[in-house]
Amino acid sequence: GFGSTARLLAGILRLSTAEARTRVEHAAAVGARRGLTGEPLRPRLPATAAALSSGQLGVGQLRVIAETVAALPNSVPESVREQVEADLARYGGDFAPRGLRTIAQRIVATLDPDGPEPDDTVQAAPVRGELWLRERRDGLLGLEGWLNAEHGAMMRSLIEQLAALRPATTG
User: Angle at which helices 59-71 and 78-92 pack, to 10 degrees?
Assistant: First the structure.
């Protein structure tokens, strides 16, 4: 089996895993839902769902609206979130995704002028370093990674020795 709806969709439609996952998330945001006891629940983005089903919005606008609502900080009340979603769904009928994204960015900047909390965690670097060699299909060898100062000096010395001019040999 595929193990998830996104993998199934990717396999059937030959989509990338990321695109399939996005489509599943969008369907969950605008699709019909049921509660635990079977009662119908409204979509998570009801105004967007209505505008999408009537043909006023496309997938690009849906993406902008879903990303914007998800980016709103937890401090924004639910009633304001609903209003933002409804406003963007309404504007989406008049603007292409790029223009709608500009409007969405202004709304988010108004509701969260300080932006997201900064991530002050420092990524600890491994003690040694990492180096990857990849042989490409065309026969070239790819080299990628990073080394600490000691290993970097050793690698540089090796490369310089290999790159040094060698006297021509006569046979």
Answer: 160
